[in-house]
Amino acid sequence: MRKGLLSFVVLASLGFTAWLASTQQVRGPVVTTNTLINAAGNGAEWLSYGHDYAETHFSPLSEINTRTVKRMSLAWSVETQAPAGTVEATPLMHDGVLYGILPWNVIFALDARTGKKVALGSRSRAA
Description:
Blueprint lengths: L1 H22 L9 H5 L54 E3 L2 E6 L3 E6 L16
Antiparallel strand pairs: 1-2, 2-3
């Protein structure tokens, strides 16, 4: 009986320690009301449908212009399981992750630099 109780305590402690470690992951910056209000000046993020409260759909980034656009090329692509023509929502960008939604409210997250899937809720920031 004692051996079984000791085993349970040890396993429960290990489980609790693993759970506690997973909750201590480094999180990205939090999006606040102030962040959304001042989104027009932030070209690194696209936090809402129209980019900012005025819904301008305009990015303040200047790296792409009439002189540089011809040098653009495809960096990566991703294939979803959604039927063709059904992904119509504006993807959102926050902290280097591109978030999108598919039919039936299926959410996906991709690393914006590589296009690799990011597990929602288990992302740790690179140092």
